Automatic annotation (TrEMBL):
Boundaries of every Aminoglycoside phosphotransferase domain copy: 27-249
Tree of life domain: Bacteria
Keyword Metal-binding: no
Protein source organism: Roseivivax jejudonensis
Descriptive protein name: Putative aminoglycoside phosphotransferase
Length: 339
């Protein structure tokens, strides 16, 4: 962040963030591929600033205002979120909409295999991950002021239409498996079963902040894709991540001896979540999982397009992530034909 930008942010925070006092410094986080994110260091303490990227953006993408709204609404619920301070919609301050929230100390677990942990700790982290997911889906959205946070109607039909349009708008080359996956999803849309909860939209272990000591989740981060919708979309997103290769790129569990590491199988995690919510294990979970792969492929295609257009937060990483789109399409087709 340039010095004149920091000065404008400082002046804005002096007017809008109670208790703030400068001087102000900023360090950009490596994470936050979609919305650039900075740690702000000030005399009054540490803060986090999250803003939209510069340049032309897809409609409804990079919704930092929605992130701000949902975290503010969840402040007094069992869902752990950072306390948000203020939203700036005046683009003259930083060239894009942004918000400032508290800095929550803790640790990010980048990989679900948790290579530096022991089996008991791994098991406890995954149990906590499932607990927090169920808490998100238990929120009384009307009571916290989020009853209008998503449009009414069939969530999956709406989401499939939205992400197909987003994918076509950012398409850079034909991917046959992606076309086949979209066609399969359109042909196998389940009937709307009436489940409608708050959904995070990108629920995975590296979007959770855990206590530095122990396995308590201190904050759920990255609410950009949150809405009201079907809770199994979040559950399927967890399983989707686990189907990817292990390591810093895939951040998955494919081929890992989970039992030896203290990690549950896909089926055990799904069953534990359903038991916590008091619902039956879904017979059509393959649809939810196939959709999760499709949507993530569409998201990564958008990241690639922004990198090619020069609007990505980290262009090299954006192109690397975009190269995975065919793999997500193939895995989505595999999931579609399970069971």
């Amino acid at each position: 962040m340039e010095r004149d930008e920091l000065d404008r942010v400082r002046r804005w925070m002096e007017r809008n963030v109670p208790g703030f006092s400068g001087p102000l410094g900023a360090t950009k986080f490596d994470s936050g591929q979609s919305n650039p994110t900075y740690r702000l260091n000030a005399a009054s303490g540490a803060y986090v600033l999250r803003r939209k990227p510069h340049g032309p953006l897809l409609k409804s993408a990079h919704a930092v205002d929605r992130e701000f709204r949902v975290m503010r609404a969840l402040a007094d619920t069992p869902v752990p979120v950072p306390r948000v301070h203020a939203l700036c919609e005046d683009e003259s301050v930083l060239g894009a909409m942004f918000f400032v929230m508290e800095h929550v100390s803790g640790r990010v677990i980048d990989e679900p295999s948790m290579p530096r942990s022991v089996p008991r700790e791994r098991a406890e982290v995954i149990v906590e991950m499932g607990r927090v997911l169920a808490e998100i889906h238990a929120v009384d959205v009307d009571a916290v002021g989020l009853g209008d946070f998503g449009p009414p109607g069939d969530y999956y039909a709406r989401q499939l239409g939205r992400w197909t349009k987003q994918y076509r708008a950012s398409e850079t080359e034909a991917i046959d498996d992606m076309d086949r996956l979209i066609a399969w999803l359109e042909a196998h849309l389940p009937e709307d079963d009436g489940q409608r909860t708050l959904v995070h939209g990108d629920y995975r272990i590296d979007n959770l902040l855990f206590a530095s000591e122990g396995t308590l989740c201190r904050a759920v981060l990255d609410w950009e894709l949150s809405t009201l919708g079907h809770p199994l979309a979040d559950l399927a997103a967890v399983i989707m991540q686990w189907r990817l290769p292990p390591g810093p790129e895939g951040r998955g569990l494919a081929g890992v001896d989970r039992a030896a590491l203290g990690l549950p199988s896909d089926a055990d995690f799904v069953a534990a979540y359903c038991a916590r919510r008091g619902i039956d294990v879904p017979a059509d979970f393959n649809f939810h999982l196939a959709f999760a792969f499709f949507r993530m492929g569409a998201i990564l295609q958008g990241v690639k397009k922004r990198a090619l257009d020069g609007n990505a937060s980290n262009p090299d990483k954006g192109l690397r992530l975009g190269s995975f789109v065919p793999r997500f399409a193939a895995l989505g087709l595999e999931a579609a034909h399970e069971g």
